[in-house]
# Entry
Amino acid sequence: MNPELFLQLDRVIHEKGRLAIMSGLAAASELSFTELRDMLGMTDGNLTTHIRTLQQEGFVSVAKSYQNNRPLTSCSLTPAGRKAFAEYINLLEQIIQQSKPQ
# Structure
């Protein structure tokens, strides 16, 4: 197995909470903060911290609006986030293929 592949894994995405957020957003065009929080079982603070990190990397966009006179925060993957997530998944697939017995 090529250990270099492990070094290529994006550390921002690889963290468990952020990987879960990226996975959820990859499966949906957009999710509200509440939907993400409930789906992942995270606290508001924990989710906010991870979203902020992903947003700073340019992987996630956050939109604030109102729905039925209530604040609504929605998150979605940016094109760069979709690309980075696809590259991350492809790299994991390469690692898995190399670790399969011949």
In short: Helices lie at 4-7, 11-14, 16-27, 33-40, 44-56, 79-99.
